[in-house]
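INTERNAL TRANSFER SHEET
From: sequence group
To: structure group
Subject: Anaphase-promoting complex subunit 7 isoform X2

Please process the attached sequence and return the structure record in the designated field. Keep the field labels unchanged so the import script can parse them.
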Amino acid sequence: MDVPKEQITALLDNALFNSAQLLGSFLVSSSTVNAETSPHLKAENLVLLGDALFREREYRRAIHTYKQALQYYKIIPKQNSTSSRSALSASNRSSSPNSFNICAINENEMEGIPSKARNLQMSLLMAKLYRNTKHTRGAVTCYRECLRQCPYVIEAIIALAELGASAKDIISLFPQTPNRGGRAQLDHGDSSRWLQRYVEAQCCIASNDYKGGLELLAELLQRFPNNTHILLEMAKVEAIIGKNDEAIMNFEKVRSVDPYVVTCMDEYAMLLKMKSDYSKLNKLVHDLLSIDPTRPEVFVALSVLWERKDERGALSYAEKSIKIDERHIPGYLMKGNLLLALKRPESAVMAFRGAQELRADLRSYQGLVHSYLAFSKVKEALYAAREAMKAMPQSAKALKLVGDVHASNSGGREKAKKFYESALRLEPGYLGAALALAELHVIEGRNGDAVSLLERYLKDWADDSLHVKLAQVFAATNMLQDSLSHYQSALRINPQNEAAKKGLERLEKQMKGVDPDAPEEEENEVDDADAEQEEAELL
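Return from structure group:
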């Protein structure tokens, strides 16, 4: 069997509910299990996952999973019903009496317990305490001890990868043979390979090798179709590297498999906002509030929804998400972007630094660079951009970031051009670099070069921002009809595109021979008085 059920039971008995439910998701989505297993065993597996979700306090997901188990239970032949009932009730056992006492033990008391005397639950809790207090060495030691005791503590695998451990180092911790301590054994057969692949995928993602990570996750998905955890991991990476359509598709697949998943749904909300899909965003936030209004993801999603109406209100939601969970990265990213929009770049730097300390990825680097540039700290912006390039040497987006810093001053435009061109050589389909290079051409008066560059992308990209940029270039060269056509194309793709709306407004003035930058004529006092009288009547 791909996933040993006794390991999920052991994780539950040790109150490692998060790892238990992650491992349970592999159990119920395994292609081997689904092809060969009887309804009786499928029901058992689902109940085991339901138990883990219930103890993790994901109650709506637990109910959804138990209902699926009941559907299989209904098709079990009657002669098996007695044994299946006893199996189901056995798996729905309560946790061991000692499992909740650990919360009462403080860090100093736990440090006094010799490492050999600590059980699995103590080791994981110590690891988390060390990590939260930035004692990295202690955290690594305790996470390693967890995997020596049980290779299926998924939380420990992810944490060690994020703390810089190599895949080889993590896999070497897995116990290979049974021992007197009754520790979990990992066999050398086919069933252990998926776990090793999973370790490799997490290490790739943690080291910013997003392409390698995605390939490994896609390979795992073939073995575990519709696995919500793998789909979420893929969607998160795709969102980071700008594969927004693929990320949205994977988030939607997760919601079709389990409509009560809250994990990472704030990331999905951000993508819907970028697509200006407000009807889906509204529905998502409504669903999340009905599932569990106490989760940080819900407050980030609320922040995303409110950003268009009230940026300060949105900021308070983002801050609330961080108060609920100080390690929730999307909360910091959302806070940073809102502070930047509110023209508070110094505070935005602090928020992006907070995200970076937890897990440095492309988005926190982008936020830092744009924040520093917003208050003319070019040296700091360049340092952050170069850090991103060192961390992600094969990333076109990191190269573009360095280009953005050089483009911010007239003396660096030639360097910026080289970085944008390098980014496009590395990733020819990277629209962000093409738009930035086109903008550079326009600034330096090479409008023809900008148009020819952007028109090359029109063949493959139906993107509103591409049409807006072309419209702006045509408007600047007084080709007003072409500009109009591209603004209209942009609004057909995305009716909510603010840049297209404002550009079209300006263009209409230009076409009427009116200076678009001239101040609006103020209405006279008589009109204002009439309006006030009308308002009073309406009231």
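Handover comment: Residues 39-55 form the longest helix (17 residues). Residues 428-517 form a domain with the Serine Threonine Protein Phosphatase 5, Tetratricopeptide repeat fold (CATH 1.25.40.10).
Transfer complete.
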